[in-house]
């Protein structure tokens, strides 16, 4: 669906910090991730509601295993969180509550968009480093800035100035790790090191020869810069050999902060002989709930399928774009089955059902001409109110009628009825299925996969019976 860098209205972020030590003038890193920044809410009260389980801290630095003075702190991921709030203490207050932000912290941040954080300890507790323990805890926050989980159990943080500081971003996108994790259009994501204001991503044809450096590799294919903590590659990446990628942090003027990260690799090759491919916009590409991208596999329906697929989708695509790039992006892989979902961006943007149907019919004919069996997915409804709230964009007034016409066409093809499987009220996508009104969250992605899995044996038999209409001249 929408590309979170090109199609999404970017909301200003207001990072809230609390520093009780007069000598500390630290400003926390203001680097959001996954393509969108979120306006903060000042509402920090404890709610009388059912709290979600607190995050569990997974990085432990005790007396026998102290951290560096610039460590990576990690915790378990909360799939309902948009961001996280972390606070630090010199000592733990006697009246510390796990539902409320404490008045006794020395520092806190609410600008953390992944389950990892490199805190600027040298800015708010320099006199304590290597001398006494700090304490920290974390909780999950929703889109409106309200807490949704309890705070984690406070954790002691011991430091040792002799240990090497975190000097590069930590890569978080891991490809070729299981079902649905091979993407023709990769998305690169990472946890930033402290002080970063922007980033450079380097794509390579071979492992870099200059590890822990700041200069480009001689194997560089391409380089990109961004102020976010992810980057959606605009080019298809397919080769018989692996690609390698790494990231370095930059300050506001473009000077390096630390060094390049360790490089990681991914492989996307037609030689793998994929039997099934998925094709579409960002619902297929993956991601959702504002802070999760296509490499957060919980937010990709392909992860939950019972059979392997290669992901040929591209966030932001219209039905016309899908038609136009078919020869370049689908034909080299020549899957036996192609699962197709597309048209929502077109309809929401005011294009007619007739134009979308023409594009989908063209894709179908292209498939059949090349002995590829198309299987269409009906289009889920959207929620214009949530789209307006999150993206600041209006939806076409007659989107519902136009979408119904497109789905009528799809239901005349070999299809799987995703729209009918999603619980909605008056044809509007419910808040619980898509926070932003467009991109299905985990529950929605699981419903998609379950619906496909249930009918896959029978639908593939139907798909195999398709033939090219003799009267078609495309």
Write the layout of secondary structure elements.
Blueprint (H helix, E strand, L loop, with lengths): L72 E2 L8 E7 L17 E6 L3 E2 L3 H4 L9 E8 L13 E3 L12 E2 L15 E5 L6 E7 L15 E7 L3 E3 L10 E8 L5 E2 L6 E3 L9 E5 L1 H4 L24 E2 L7 H6 L1 H4 L7 E5 L2 H5 L4 H17 L3 E5 L6 H8 L7 H12 L4 E2 L1 H4 L2 E2 L2 E2 L12 H23 L10
Descriptive overview:
This is Lysophospholipase L1. It comes from Propionispira arboris. The strands form 6 sheets. Strands 9, 10, 12, 13 and 14 form a 5-stranded antiparallel beta sheet that branches. A 5-stranded parallel beta sheet has the order 16-15-17-18-19, sandwiched between helices. It contains 10 helices and 21 strands. The N terminus is likely disordered. Helices cover 18% and strands 19% of the residues. It has 3 domains: 166 residues, Immunoglobulin-like; 97 residues, Immunoglobulin-like (Sandwich), CATH 2.60.40; 192 residues, SGNH hydrolase (Rossmann fold, 3-Layer(aba) Sandwich), CATH 3.40.50. With 474 residues, the chain is of the alpha+beta class. Helix 6 packs parallel to helix 8.
